[in-house]
Amino acid sequence: MTLAEPTYPDDLRYHDQHDWARIEGEVATFGITWYAQDSLGEVVFYDPPEVGGSVEKDATYAEVESVKAVSDVIAPMSGEIVEVNEALADAPERVNEDPYGDGWLVKVRLSDPGEAEQLLGAAEYRKLLENS
Amino acid sequence: MDFAGWEMPVQYEGIREEHAAVRTHAGMFDVSHMGEVEVEGPGALAFLQRVLSNDVARIEVGGAQYSCLCNEDGGVLDDLFAYRFGGDRYLVVTNSANHEADLAWLGRWSRQLGDVAVRDVADRYAMLAVQGPHARGIVAQALRIELPSRMRVAAVRVGGRPALACGTGYTGEDGVELLIDPEVAPAIWAELLDAGVVPCGLGARDTLRLEVCFHLHGNDLTPDRNPIEAGLGWCCSEGTGFIGAEAVLRARREGTEERLVPFKIEGAGIPREGNPVLSGEDRVGAVTSGTFSPSLEIGIGMAYVRAAVAEPGTEVEIDVRGKHRPARIASKPLYQPKG
Fold this sequence. Notes:
The complex is a heterodimer. Chain A contains three helices and nine strands, in the order E-E-E-H-E-E-E-E-E-H-E-H. Chain A is an alpha+beta fold. Chain A has one domain: CATH 2.40.50.100. In chain A, the strands form two sheets. Chain A has a six-stranded antiparallel beta sheet with strand order 1-2-3-9-8-5. Chain A has a three-stranded antiparallel beta sheet with strand order 4-6-7. Chain A is globular and about 35 Å long. Chain B has three domains: 2-32 and 125-211, Probable tRNA modification gtpase trme, domain 1 (Gyrase A, domain 2); 35-122, Alpha-Beta Plaits, CATH 3.30.70; 257-329, Beta Barrel (Elongation Factor Tu (Ef-tu), domain 3). Chain B has helices at 15-24, 44-51, 99-113, 135-143, 185-194, 202-211, 245-254, and strands at residues 2-3, 6-7, 27-30, 35-40, 63-70, 76-86, 89-94, 117-120, 126-131, 153-158, 161-166, 175-180, 198-200, 258-265, 276-279, 282-293, 298-306, 315-320, 323-329. A six-stranded mixed beta sheet of chain B has the order 10-11-12-9-3-13. In chain B, strands 14-17-16-15-18-19 form a six-stranded antiparallel beta barrel. The longest helix of chain B has 15 residues, at 99-113. The chains are: A alpha+beta, B alpha+beta. Chains A and B meet through strand 4 and strand 6 of A and helix 6 of B.
């Protein structure tokens, strides 16, 4: 049902709080990493922020909940929310099944694309997990 | 996850899958962390009648009964099952976190009342709870034993060793709890898995018990709460003169300021322990257990609330980390097992 093996695509940038950003020009898609969804367990609820709201790098912008626990989601970069994944309201398990695809959380118009440099590449993020 | 000094899995394959297995088929929990206390002697009945809230005289040989263990103020020290497996032999199954304190309490009262021996036999038993509509059939066939009916206990042999089979559980489903020799427990666990039962962790145990509104001591029951406000007046027989009976009787007659009630969230949101319960601007209570119900697919919980808002159907709000989630007080159980 879920991705059984840890997966960290090379085309993403990673935040050390287990969030990813897929940067496409001025807009980035955010989500949580394989490690985050695996630690959390089956996601049963995603409380999305509002479109038009702003997110700030390193700050909480949403919550995902499994049966057992709630987890804050940290923004890897700053900007304005232009889209939220409404489909997760009916199918929050997509966060587990496809954390880098259908399980995306928000799309953000970046206010400072330069922040990307402070994020980790896939290899660095994997190393962080190994050392934690 | 560390639970009262025991290494316990929260889940094996996933809480929802395990939860569904118990509701529709058969799931198995290793609940060896539960404590066992043997109570034996000519004074056993008089002793248990004094320390347990229920009318212990009503347990026949081979019977089981749920009780509270109360302090002098009627506060609930623990909630537990007592099994009578001989004329003056009983087994009391404690919650692991309370086991040592229960033992000290029971020991103290046994010395005072006399003619009764209280023995810690927790090391003598591993405990496997096999629960679900198919649990009984699978266990009987796989272990080739005759199982007691619901709320009964039987001496059986499991893995060639003496064991107890109890027709009790913590999920609302039919099933059995097996008290077996720890040495044979791993082999029996494996044998039951081969027979098709699904291994379940603490996570599913919590969602299952909360759907049927079974109390969790430490959350829904504490020494600061009496059985009446906890909705456990049905297992208290004040006429027996148990420790705390006077306080319990007073609470029953006069009513309590707060009551433990189940509730359902209406719409989105998952309540958690500690969330405030609101009625308009007023804080009227607090959540003691909350989770996502895999059967109902909504947030559910139990909360101590002011008596004025305790009636089923009452609309309240749960403050889930700053978001006010509409909820409605419900009646027990929140989910009716189909078994």
